[in-house]
Amino acid sequence: PSSRLETATASMIHAPLLLAPRGVSIDLNEQSAPQRFTSLANVRQIIINSGSGAPLVSGLASVTGSTTIRITGRANMRFPALSSLASLASITVDSGSKAEFDGVTGYTHPPNVDVTWRAHNPGSELVFTNLVRIQGPDTPGEYLQIQAGSGGKVLFPSLMQIIREGDNDNSANSGVALSVSGTGMLAAPLLYLFRDNDTRPNSSLSLSAGGGLSLPGLSQAGLLGVKLTGVSLPAQPILPKPNFTMAGTNIIFVVPSLAGHTYQLQQTASPGTVGWTNAGVPQAGSNSVLSFSTPMQGSKKFYRFMITPWP
After folding, report:
1. Rounded mean pLDDT of the chain?
2. Nearest alpha carbon to residue 310 among 257, 243, 254
């Protein structure tokens, strides 16, 4: 389709629901922003091009159909209301732009579609702030491709699991592919599990041409059915440390968690002994962060978290 809806400098479109049954391309230029769009149906493509670099917040909460989003021209966009990426066939961030999808906590790959998340060019960042788990494609011919290239960054501050259950039909034409090249960067400091459980797995993790990876929690122990190219992982994970703050006379620990696991804060006066004791009560994982508060002691203390079951 060739239909196109375009704005000029400093103009705005106010359309709470845009239904485009034959497909339309939306091109938002300069200071315009899609903050007035809350629901899009069958929109073929959205291009956000803001030369100012000023932070803009989108009110977009619902997308149906198969839509591609491109953030370009130093645009700086947040999508806090969008809780699902299932209808986005591709997300591309380039030309020094930034896109943050902080309303999404989980992702399940939609059927019968290839999906690409990509950051390209220096200064470009694609951030999935609260995404905890990625469920990969389950049918043949489908890929989720996550790409950081030519100085672009793809960041997953909260991601802990990438899992493809697989359809067990012996098809190798499906998987989750992570690739970094050309001084790009992919960071997922909490990722500890990347598994392709299909009978003919075809997921991959590749690094080339000066790219960078920051995956301190991922190890050979958390890898299954994933082809590595240019990547070396330790045998066991180097676990990320929880964050902590001081609040009056208490220490507040904040730790990412997964449903199905139990988290217990423990303390001791000396880490070289077996004298670890529980500090407070255990908490059930919630696919979000957990907060633990414990009083500061007069003497030096060491703290750790017991996670059951592990991994």
Report:
1. 82
2. 257
Instruction: List, for residues 82-126, the tens digit of each pLDDT value.
Output: 999 999 999 999 999 999 999 998 999 998 889 999 999 999 999
Whether 147 contacts 119, CB under 8 Å: yes
- Please, which residues have CB within 8 angstroms of residue 232's CB and are 6 or more apart in sequence? none
Q: Which two three-digit tokens encode residue 227?
A: 């082809």
Q: How confident is the model at residue 1 (pLDDT cuts 50, 70, 90)?
A: very low
User: For residue 301, what pLDDT is reported?
Assistant: 87
- Counting Cα atoms < 13 Å in the Cβ hemisphere of 174 gives 27
As given in the structure block, the two tokens for residue 117 are 């998340």
Sequence-distant (6+) residues with CB within 8 A of 273 are none
Radius of gyration of the chain (CA): 22
Closest CA to 146 of 120, 177, 175: 177
Give the pLDDT mean for 161-169: 77
Alpha helical stretches, state H, 117-256: none
Question: DSSP class of residue 222?
Answer: G
DSSP 114: -
Range 279-282 contact pairs with CB under 8 angstroms and sequence separation of 24 or more? 279/303
Peptide bond just before 309 cis, omega within 30 deg:
yes
pTM, two decimal places: 0.76
Burial class from Cβ neighbours inside 10 Å (0-12, 13-18, 19+) for residue 33 reads: buried
Is the omega angle on the peptide bond into residue 311 within 30 degrees of 0, that is, cis?
yes
245 pLDDT higher than 70? yes
- DSSP-derived secondary structure letter, 220: G
CA–CA separation, 166 vs 168, rounded Å?
Answer: 6
Structure tokens at 128: 């999935």
Residue 36 backbone dihedrals phi, psi, to 5 degrees: -90, -10
| Positive or negative torsion for Cα 36, 38, 44, 47 | positive
